[in-house]
Each structure stands twice: as structure tokens, then as C-alpha cells.
Amino acid sequence: MIEVEGLTKYYGDFAAVQDLSFNVGKGEILGFLGPNGAGKTTTMRILSGYMPPSEGAAKVAGYDVFKQSMQARRHIGYMPENVPLYKEMTVASYLDYMGSLRRVENRRQRIGEVMDKVNIVDRADDRIATLSKGYRQRVGLAQALLHNPDVIILDEPTIGLDPRQIIDVRQLIRSLQGEHTVILSSHILPEVSEVSTRIIIINHGRIVAVDTPQGLTVLLSGGERVILELRNAPPVDKVIVALKNLPGVNKVEAMDKAGKFDLRYEAEKDPRPLIARTIVQNDWDLLELHYASMSLEEIFLHLVVDEESKEENQEEAA
Amino acid sequence: MRNMWIIARRELGSYFTSPIAYIVVAALIALTSNFFSLILFFSREATLSYLFSNLITIMLFVAPILTMRLLAEEQRSGTIELLLTSPINDWEVVWGKWLASFILWLFILLLTLIYPFILKVYGSPDWGPIWSGYLGLMLMGGALLALGVFTSSLTQNQIVAAVLGVVITLGLWIVGGGSQLLSGPLASFLNYLALSNHISDFSQGVIDIKHIIYLLSVIFGSLYIATRVVEMRRWR
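Above: the input entities. Below: the C-alpha cells describing the complete assembly.
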């Protein structure tokens, strides 16, 4: 549904996006993740047909977003960052305006359906200026869904929302899966990992990793992980030696001197019962033993920091 | 064409949801009726040519105010991004915006028809110069508004757009004065360029194709450049 090949965008000498290539299949929800300034918005803007790429090409629904822009645009619903809206208009008249520009058939009925879907029917006749951030976000989403596009591009759809609103938006995005292809960006991991079927991590305009949320976790955490907290334990070294020799344990690290340990193990052998037994047999007090897979947050940082150290020799990005 | 109309319709709606259209229309009617009665009182002539030239002088300042918001505000708030990713052409956006301001101008002219009506009731005006004068007003207003749309495309700041608009319309209005210091082709070029040299014939009852072509070129030229400016913003 979306094919991106060697996409590059320069602002002057600064490359915001470099040699980006990826594909998104029909019905997928692709999360586009990266720190601020990584090139997410630039990529979204190119895909939506707002700006042309400097090099490379992107196709949406089979149409080149630059050379066949008009056809491509008909298949795209787009919600830009910060959801720009005409504040003096009412919700219904705004949707009517956007719908008429996009030649939506049975416009009235369709607007009703979409307002129902994003849950703003009760605010239909309110001016957009009087709406809260959460409601505006929904109006922006409604606008992107109006013409029932194949591809929906959402730039930072949950930024600035409160936790309840974030859950609503997530549910809405999930409900789009299958029927629509969605590409959404965020700099916050849980936002992306919660709803996406696949994640692309981007940093300094380049792709750093592409995988499913689960795949990324397994790929980078070096196995499953457990956090241990002990009391009355012997010096740290002794504990590490005792635990490390257990079958299935890959790595033991002291997190502090008070008796907190970070332990990695192979999922198939699951040595957790053994760990507990060892601790009890040694007469150490077990305060805590909890499962803690490496969060995507850590993976993200890990990847981004790695990337940065690789680039240290290269010139600094502006 | 249809998209142009959709955009113009929204823009007209937004003129009348903010106080600006009401203020401008009310001020123009107040000023013109004041001029009309004063001119009539002193000249005792059933003519509108003085009124028309006053109205155009006022429009030099009012046109940029009517157009300052059109593109600048879209660029400031970011709504332009949604317009430019909708399946419509950039020129349709620019022309639609201009059309909205032009329709407002036609509405103002419609209201001023009360003055020739009063002349008809109390005297016997010469209709030729009145109708040709109205044609001149329409075209000149359209040209001033197109220049305003152009300056509005240059910035995200409405005030900057308005001030720049006044500077350009005033500049083009008085540039003919420079011809008196010069001679030869440069002088005649400045004379041709000056907006002020293309309106008086209309209110004398003369419809010269030269003036019509000039004013239409200002409209098409300004809106063409404005479209290119909007297009260029995509490339940034």
C-alpha cells in the first residue's frame, strides 16, 4: 500500500531524511518512532504529498506521491502534527468543507457516520475554538477518515492529550486496522508499541531498526529478564557467582550495593524456581523477584545511543 | 473551478463570522455617503466621478486589510498543509481566496448603487460615465485585492501582509509621478505601470481596452506569483 524507495530530503545542506526505504502492506499499522528532529514529520509530509522529496520516490496506493500527486492524495487521509483547524468554524461545517473539497459522496450521511465513529456528535454545532485539545484531535481524525481513504497518515496523534484521551485515540486507531493502512508517528514508545503491528525506529533521518514490537524486545534484550532484591546477602560478587552458575542464566549484574540484581536468562529453561531455591538454601532474605522484560523504551534509547556513537566521527548534524 | 468556489464560499463565511467584514462595509458606506452628500452639496452636479476616485483612494488602504488574512493566517495556523494535501490545485486555493474578497467588494459596490439612484430621483445624471465608472471600480478593486493576496502569500503575519500590501498599492499608485523627473521610454513605462493612470478614463465614460488589459494583467499576474509563492513553500 505504501512503497518508499531511497527517500531523501534536504533542507539546504541539512539532510532531514536520508535514503529511507520501507514498505507497508494493506491493513498494517506502522509505527514511526524516533526522537524529536529525527525526520518523522518530514517523512509524513512527503508521503501526504505536502512536500516533494529531494531524491527517491514514494508510492501510495500505487501512485507516486509527487508525479501523480492528485491521484495519490485521493487515497490519503492526513492529520498533520498539532492538528491545524479553522477555529472560527463549527465542527459540522468544517467537516462539510473538507468533505466537499474531497468530493465525498452522500456527504451528510458520511459526516454523521464519521462524527459517530470519533464520538463528537454532541459537539457538532460547537465552534472549534471552544473545543478542548482532545476534541480537536478527534475533529482532525474525523477529517482524515471522511473520504474513507486507503491510507491514513497520523503525525503525533496523541501528543498533548491526557491519559484517558490517549486510550480513546489508541482504541480508535486500532479499530482502523484491516480496513485501512495506518502510518503513525510518535516520539513516545508506548504510543507506538501499543497499536502498531510493525515499528520503524528512525534517528537522524535514517532507519535504525524495523520489526514487530515483540521482535524488537527479543532481538535486543538478550533474553528474558528478572530483577532481584535481597537482604542479608553476602558481598555482591559471591551472589553473582552463585546465581551465574545456575543452568539457563546468561548474565547477572548488580544494580546497586544494597542487594539489587539484574538477571538475564533463556526463556526455554526458565531458571526462576532454581533462583528462588538457591536464595532460600543460602539463607538470604528474598525481598523481591519480578519479571522485567527490557522495555521498548530502553531498546529505543539503546539503538539511538548506539547510532550516535557510530556517528561520532562523522560530522555533527545541525 | 468547483474547488475555487468551495474555498471562496468558506472564506466569505469566515469574513462574516469575524467583525472585519462588518466594520469595513460599515466604514465604507459611512465614508462614501458623507463624500456623496458633500460633493453633491458643493458641486451641484449629477455626477459620481469625484466619489469614485475617493472610493478608490480609500480602497488602496482597505484592500490589503481585506486580504491580509487570506493566505497568511493559513500559513500561520498550518491549515494550509491540509489544503495543499487535498486533491485540489494550488492555483484553485489562491484564486478561491481572491474570489471571496472580490465578491465582498462587489457586495460593497452593490450597496453604493443607492447614490446613482438618488441622483436619478433628484436629477438627470449621465449614465454612461456612471456605468463605465463602476466597471473601472470593479476591475481596479479586483487588482488591488489581487496585490493584497500576493502580499498575504509572502508571510505568516497578517499585519506584515497588510502593511506590505499598502506599501505596494500606494507605490504602484504614485509611481507615475516619477515620470515627470524622467523622459523617454522609462517615463512612459512608469506612466503605464502606475495604477492611478488606469482609472480616470473609466469615470469619464471612456472604456479603453488598454486599461482593461492592464488591470486584468495585474490580477492574473499577482495571483500567478502568489500561486508560485505557495508552491515554493512546499519546497522550503
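Note for the figure: Chain A touches chain B through 28 residues (CB under 8 Å).
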